[in-house]
Amino acid sequence: MSSADETAVAITGESGPMNGLKETAIRSVFFSCALVTVLTTLGIILVLVQGSIGFFQEVSIVEYVTGTDWSPVIRPRSFGVLPLIWGTLIITVGSALIAIPVGTATAIYLSEYADPQVRKVIKPTLEILAGIPTIVYGFFALSFITPIIQRFFPETGTFNAAAGAIVVGIMIIPMVSSLSEDAMSSVPDDLRNAAYGLGATKFEVSTSVVFPASLSGVIASYILALSRAIGETMAVTLAAGMHPQITGNLLEPIQTMTAYMVQIGISDVSVGSIGYQSLFAVGLTLFAMTLAMNLFSLWIKSRYREEYQ
Amino acid sequence: MTANNEPAEMTPNRRGPESVSTSEIDERRSASAAADDGPLGSPRVSSPVIESRDLDVFYGDTQALHGIEMEVPERQVTALIGPSGCGKSTFLRSINRMNDLIDVARVEGDLYFHGKNVYDDDVDPVALRRKIGMVFQKPNPFPKSIYDNVAYGLRVQGKDDGDVDEKVRTALEQAALLDEVEDQLDESGLDLSGGQQQRLCIARAIAPDPEVVLMDEPASALDPVATSKIEDLIDDLAEEYTVVIVTHSMQQAARISDKTAVFLTGGHLVEFDDTEKIFENPESQQVEDYITGKFG
Ligand SMILES: Nc1ncnc2c1ncn2[C@@H]1O[C@H](COP(=O)(O)OP(=O)(O)OP(=O)(O)O)[C@@H](O)[C@H]1O
Ligand SMILES: [Mg+2]
Q: Do B10 and B2 form a contact (C-beta atoms < 8 A)?
């Protein structure tokens, strides 16, 4: 048999049809796995919308969206969601004010300044920080952060917005720093060399070349961290309390949307009651907010695509 | 294979009749170059901007350059040629201390810029690089607008107080790019063609008005048309700047340079002389072989 014949056999393949079958099977297994996540997402949306329909039959959407009093259990009942949104915003903005500067500086340090040995220690430490259960952060806030705040402001309550914002800020630092560092490390050395060659200092290279060149990844990390802050539950419930109110005083307790959902989830409201249904409305609101953030992050990413590669 | 017989050959050859004319340089050589006698050739470099004296560069334990003795004349084009891996880029980077950025790199010996050893403790590499600009092999514009690319050096060097617009335009003009980009200064430098990007990088390097421009194979990634544009440009640049250029192309070195340094495998500078001399009548057999294509 000549070698040409062998080649011909090899490329036609005796088990052609069997192979095709196997490929189809593999393909459908993978497809089903992908389908599970899509179906789960759709299922969640469906449940939230369905549950909310009952709620909005009793409470007008306008009252819900514009009302400034949230009193779902104690009569007279009132379902203005703004105090919960306010609570969530305080935590989100407050934690962002901590996590964005600290996380960005950490990322720049790790990517541009740190010796390889130092980086080898700090990176895993940050990952451990990110892996601690959030309830532990909640206790950390109660037993450590709040007492410190109280030392400076004795009137601070056991539950207060400041401790919640600080602890969530600390929680999301690793997310900002690790994702931003990935983005900064992927900036090619060519660009750094160009700047050094022009007589730039290390600080100038970091801030005026590396940071802008990695901006899309950095902003995406901010947004992901913020949506994490919006959705954060246990730590804020424990630290910031369960008192829905619109207040500018960070030393007072507040309630976030998530904390409210915990409160109803563990209370004895009966299934089908208005209190129970409000859970879905708040859940839907929360979902809409995080979805908006994630879409925004995708948009940023596609808009400021790293062109230099 | 070729490297080990080198010292033996170099010593007798370099005491040729020509070396008499450079007695001044020779004296300095004999003082500092006990280990290495320096290259063959006898260029007349009356007022060198850069002088390399017994310069060794190591990457970790491997030595990439051995006792480089060389001087770079002012406002001329000096070409560094030689086979791949012979240390041309390493030498170029040791002039403006870009080697500092490579963790494993270590420099021994002296490199003088206007008589000042740039490896002295009191030398700030940032300040040095403001005097000695650099253009890299691969065009590397910042992901910023054309204007901001050129203005970058002005800004970091604090030279952005006067008319930045004017300086940007002048640099682009000198880099023979202004006509092509005049109407798109706000657009990204990355949207330009490779050849345009490299001219943008040249404009960026000369905008802050350095004294010396180092170029590491600036045309190697470009097509012939773009290459010839860059070559014309280098010719013009030499009226104002001292240019040191690494090139793989012997024709290019012959076309554009006044002095040529030939590095050969192992990191030795074998011969340094006027470009015509190197290409018409080199003293070293190895250099002749390399230039006529018999080497490596
Ligand atoms: N960053 C580095 N780390 C370790 N070794 C290096 C480094 N850069 C260069 N070298 C080594 O130093 C020697 C000289 O390299 P260099 O890049 O200076 O050569 P070159 O003449 O510029 O070559 P080419 O023409 O291919 O660009 C080579 O053996 C190379 O492997
Ligand atoms: Mg090179």
A: no
Assess contact for B87 and B64: CB atoms under 8 A.
Answer: yes
Q: Is A188 on the interface with B (CB under 8 A)?
A: yes
What is the distance in angstroms between the Cα of B96 and the nearest Cα belonging to chain A?
8
Which residue's alpha carbon is nearest to atom 1 within ligand 1?
A: B102
Q: Domain of B63: which CATH number?
A: 3.40.50.300
Taking the C-alpha atoms of residue A175 and residue A127, their distance in angstroms, rounded to an integer, is: 9
Q: Is residue B267 part of a domain?
A: yes
Enter the ipTM.
0.83
- Between positions 194 and 223 of A, the ones with CB within 8 A of B are 194-201, 204, 208-209, 212-213
pTM above 0.90?
no
- Whether B144 has its CB under 8 Å from any CB of chain A: the answer is yes
Number of domains in chain B: 1
- Residue A285, amino acid: T
Q: What Cα–Cα distance (Å) separates residue A305 from each residue in A26, A206, A218, A294, A309?
A: 33, 19, 12, 16, 10
CATH class of A94-307: mainly alpha
Any domain includes B166: no
Shortest CA distance to B5 belongs to which of B292, B284, B258? B284
Facing residues of B113 across strands? Answer: B50, B116
For residue A191, the one-letter residue type is L
CA distances from A221 to A95, A173, A177, A298, B43 (A): 14, 10, 8, 11, 58
The whole domain housing B231 covers 39-140+209-291
Q: Is B182 a member of any domain?
A: no
User: How do residues A149-202 score in pLDDT, each as one tens digit?
Assistant: 999 999 998 999 999 999 999 999 999 999 999 999 999 999 999 999 999 999
pLDDT tens for each residue of B188-235: 999 999 889 999 999 999 999 999 999 999 988 778 888 888 898 898
